[in-house]
Amino acid sequence: MTPGISLLEWLLVAFTLVAAGYALVAAFAPRPRTPRTAARDGFEP
Predict the structure, then answer these.
(1) Residues whose CB falls within 8 Å of the CB of residue 44, separated by 6 or more in sequence, listed in order
(2) Is the dihedral of CA 8, 18, 20, 30 positive or negative?
(3) What percent of the chain has a predicted confidence (pLDDT) above 90?
């Protein structure tokens, strides 16, 4: 390991990579936040 990099900086890099990966997944594989249900669409009797 590089002695010039502290644990906090490693955590910051790891968080950045995780955030970037999550952004890529959210951009290329979007999932509906609110699923369409019969009650929302007004088909509930």
Answers:
(1) 38
(2) negative
(3) 38
Pick the closest to residue 14 from 25, 2, 22 (CA basis): 22
Greatest extent of the chain over all pairs of C-alpha atoms, in Å: 67
How confident is the model over 30-40, as a mean pLDDT? 64
Contact between 44 and 38 (Cβ < 8 Å): yes
Prediction pTM value? 0.49
Total length of the chain? 45
Stretch 16-45: mean pLDDT, rounded?
75
Strand, coil or helix: 28: helix
Place of tokens 């968080």: 15
